[in-house]
């Protein structure tokens, strides 16, 4: 039994397939409209996902950090030892890392680089190193940012001088991405004893388990040290990056909705094109449909036949469109995130499915009226042509 | 017993502000094995009459009986069912579907009914009208006479009681028309069906058993 014979058992599908084959150019153009719609909706959706992932990875680990520094109503020019102890007593479920900062010029082999200097004890909690180690208790060595090390030709174990002391480099700080304190500029990390001439800490970083915990920690500190309302007083300035991420996230969601909306419009345009094509082809075939009705084909069967045609158009356009979108998405992820395989993860791949489903749905919807009209035409009128 | 009967059938159309009465109390019957030809000038109501007999249209008053069952008040879906099981149609323009082969065109009225497989009967009918070697040809690969033979085979696929022919020779030359009429006459006897035809073609009267003349919506003889 041939494929055609097998299809003949599903007469609506068979007739629909043959009808689409009669005017291939028209079928191809109608499907092309759907392809464009699907590509628009899928790739715009995926673009949103790519942007969102890019933003999240750029913000990186900052989102679960809270940064504390002296407020405008503080009596001191930094965070005092007592205040740090107080913070430690309130915040028990997160790491509290006080830091002192300064800036200086580091020189080696005749090259100079301007860097910010951070004095810290628990370097492991704050810094990721690309080579070497970031000790939990930094006592003698130093960390230096990759870019500065390259600029000055420094290797692990080389000495750097700060404030009359020599420190051996124990690790290179991974500074490729991210923003926040010190971001972008070269950075030198030394033991906190290296900045012993500064009485107070410039900032305290608190690392919580998650973005939500960080927000909670920030609120707790805010409430403890500062007062709101008329006698507003800011002893400590508390800032968390979780809210930054939330803001960016909600902005990106809005952007994505807008992008999907634009994609949706093109699919609406495409379905109007299908409506037109189906209407034209049923008007052209009016006599034929009259014959079908005369020889005893039921109204529901005519309806099903024409709806199947629309479904085929949508499926065809949707499949081609989803395939094209996959390629577009891979290119987009390559450009934005540097990894074309990112398109395959569910967060972005689902837009292919949405695009396809929307295409089939829109096509069936646009097929409804022409199908209904053809099925309910009086056979006598239809036979007259 | 008559297989189809019109009893005092009146058909009125609203045409703009006017009411046109196309049939003014028409009585008609046809029996199995009989070929009845309806003739009359254009606008006389013969097409309307054929539509009534073919259950494509319903009368304003009067009754239509199919095989002694009153089908006057049948719904559109019930009439569709009756057309499928009891009637066959042959048209002046053949009206074959261009994307289907000859055998698929013949099978068409039966394919939506998945309870029967009429492929063998379709092939048999095509052989009987002399197209056994043209089964897989599409209509544009067939001559006018061959297309009308396919249409005749299609009209018989569901083993109807009545074959309705609207100007079956109208688009054919005289010789081809004659062979088509011979075919219809032979099948009418083989299948024991009633044939009701509307025509302008004088030579059709040579094959007909009875002629009904209609003028201005009234049967003359």
UniProtKB/TrEMBL annotation, chain A:
GO terms for molecular function: transmembrane transporter activity. The keyword Transmembrane applies. Coiled coil: none annotated. The chain crosses the membrane at residues 257-281, 302-331, 351-372. The keyword Kinase does not apply. GO terms for cellular component: plasma membrane. Residues 262-379 form the ABC3 transporter permease C-terminal domain. It is found in: Cell membrane. It holds the Pfam family MacB_PCD. Keywords: Cell membrane, Membrane, Transmembrane, Transmembrane helix. Belongs to the ABC-4 integral membrane protein family. This is Putative ABC transport system permease protein. It comes from Halarchaeum rubridurum.
UniProtKB/TrEMBL annotation, chain B:
One of its GO terms (cellular component) is plasma membrane. Transmembrane segments: none annotated. Keywords: ATP-binding, Nucleotide-binding, Transport. SMART domains: AAA. Residues 4-221 form the ABC transporter domain. One of its GO terms (molecular function) is ATP hydrolysis activity. The keyword Transport applies. InterPro entries: AAA+_ATPase, ABC_transporter-like_ATP-bd, ABC_transporter-like_CS, ABC_transpr_LolD-like, MacB-like_ATP-bd, P-loop_NTPase. It comes from the Archaea. This is ABC transporter ATP-binding protein. It comes from Halarchaeum rubridurum.
């Amino acid at each position: 039994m041939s494929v055609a014979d097998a299809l003949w058992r599903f007469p609506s599908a068979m007739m629909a397939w043959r009808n689409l084959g009669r005017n291939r150019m028209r079928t191809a153009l109608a499907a092309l409209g759907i392809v464009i719609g699907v590509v628009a909706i899928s790739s715009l959706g995926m673009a949103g996902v790519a942007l969102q992932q890019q933003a999240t990875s750029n913000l990186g680990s900052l989102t679960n950090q809270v940064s504390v520094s002296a407020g405008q109503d503080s009596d001191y020019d930094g965070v005092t030892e007592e205040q740090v102890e107080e913070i430690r007593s309130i915040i028990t479920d997160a790491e509290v890392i006080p830091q002192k900062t300064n800036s200086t010029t580091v020189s080696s082999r005749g090259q100079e680089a301007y860097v910010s200097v951070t004095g810290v004890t628990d370097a492991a909690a704050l810094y990721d190193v690309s080579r070497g180690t970031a000790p939990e208790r930094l006592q003698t060595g130093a960390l230096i940012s990759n870019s500065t090390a390259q600029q000055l030709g420094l290797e692990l174990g080389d000495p750097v001088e700060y404030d009359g002391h020599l420190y051996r480099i124990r690790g290179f700080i991974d500074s490729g991405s991210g923003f926040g304190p010190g971001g972008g500029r070269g950075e030198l990390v030394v033991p906190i004893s290296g900045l012993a001439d500064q009485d107070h800490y410039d900032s305290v970083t608190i690392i919580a388990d998650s973005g939500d915990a960080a927000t909670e920690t920030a609120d707790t500190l805010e409430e403890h040290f500062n007062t709101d309302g008329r006698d507003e007083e800011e002893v400590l300035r508390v800032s968390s990056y979780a809210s930054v991420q939330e803001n960016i996230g909600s902005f990106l969601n809005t952007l994505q909705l807008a992008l999907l909306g634009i994609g949706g419009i093109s699919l609406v345009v495409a379905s109007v094109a299908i409506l037109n094509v189906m209407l034209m082809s049923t008007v052209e075939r009016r006599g034929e449909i009259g014959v079908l009705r005369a020889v005893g084909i039921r109204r529901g069967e005519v309806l099903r036949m024409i709806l199947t045609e629309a479904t085929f158009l949508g499926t065809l356009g949707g499949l081609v469109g989803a395939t094209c979108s996959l390629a577009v998405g891979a290119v987009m992820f390559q450009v934005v995130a540097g990894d074309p395989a990112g398109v395959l993860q569910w967060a972005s791949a689902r837009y292919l499915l949405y695009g396809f489903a929307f295409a089939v749905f829109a096509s069936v919807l646009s097929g409804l009226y022409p199908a209904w009209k053809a099925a309910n035409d009086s056979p006598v009128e239809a036979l007259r042509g | 017993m008559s297989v189809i009967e019109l009893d005092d059938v009146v058909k009125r159309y609203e045409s703009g502000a006017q009411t046109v009465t196309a049939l003014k109390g028409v009585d008609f019957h046809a029996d199995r094995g009989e070929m009845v030809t309806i003739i009359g000038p254009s606008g006389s109501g013969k097409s309307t009459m054929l539509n009534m007999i073919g259950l494509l249209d319903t009368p304003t008053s009067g009754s239509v009986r199919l095989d002694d069952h009153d089908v006057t008040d049948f719904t559109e879906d019930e009439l569709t069912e009756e057309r499928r099981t009891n009637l066959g149609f042959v048209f002046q323009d053949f009206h074959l579907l261009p994307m289907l082969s000859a055998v698929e065109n013949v099978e068409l009225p039966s394919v939506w009914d998945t309870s029967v497989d009429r492929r063998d009967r379709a092939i048999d009918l095509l052989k009987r009208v002399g197209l056994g070697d043209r089964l897989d040809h599409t209509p544009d690969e067939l001559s006018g006479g061959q297309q009308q033979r396919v249409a005749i085979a299609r009209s018989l696929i569901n083993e109807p009681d009545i074959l309705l022919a609207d100007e079956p020779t109208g688009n054919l030359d005289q010789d081809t028309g004659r062979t088509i009429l011979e075919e219809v006459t032979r099948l009418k006897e083989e299948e024991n069906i009633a044939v009701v035809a509307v025509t302008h073609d004088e030579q059709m009267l040579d094959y007909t058993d009875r002629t009904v003349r209609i003028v201005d919506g009234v049967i003359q003889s």
